[in-house]
Amino acid sequence: MTDRQRDRVLFLRILKCLDEGGYALVKILDAFFDLSASQQDAFVAWSHKRIEDERWDEVASDRMQYKEFIKALVMHHSGMEVKGEPTLTDLKAHIGEYLKSDEYESACKCVKYEEEPSFTEQLEEL
């Protein structure tokens, strides 16, 4: 699996974790920190720009605090639909929008994804 495919799989894992109960936040954090650094940076910057919450400025600009940003993002989207608050379904839509965005594509281009060797090359290595 190439690094680009790995990032896609990790975003899909994050989306799946939102449907599961239990320790979803822990699973989301694990998947997020397995993403390439370029994707982490792009997702946090894009999300911060979209939500526009000044309280998140410090954690959005410091890679060491991305954990707090992701926790805040999940908590922000853990409201009740009845009250008109953002829900986990809205977070899934938010991630989906990111995956369709120019920022996602730019982050893909920034990372030097390793090309997967051809089948012949893999056989030669054996």
Question: What would your notes on this structure say?
Answer:
This protein is an all-alpha fold and 126 residues long. The chain has one domain. It has helices at residues 3-19, 24-34, 37-51, 57-60, 66-76, 88-99, 102-110, 119-125. It is globular. The model has no long low-confidence stretch (mean pLDDT 87).
List the helices and strands and how they pair.
Blueprint: H1 3-19, H2 24-34, H3 37-51, H4 57-60, H5 66-76, H6 88-99, H7 102-110, H8 119-125
Helix pairs in contact: 1-2, 1-6, 2-5, 3-7
- What does the oligomeric state look like here? single chain
Q: How far from one another are the termini? A: 17 Å
Provide the number of structural domains: 1
For the CA atoms, what is the radius of gyration?
16 Å
Strand content: under 5%
Number of helices: 8
Count of beta strands = 0
Structural class: mainly alpha
Short description:
By secondary structure, this protein is mainly α. The chain is 68% helix and 0% strand.
Characteristics:
globular, 8 helices, 0% strand, mainly alpha, 126 residues, single chain
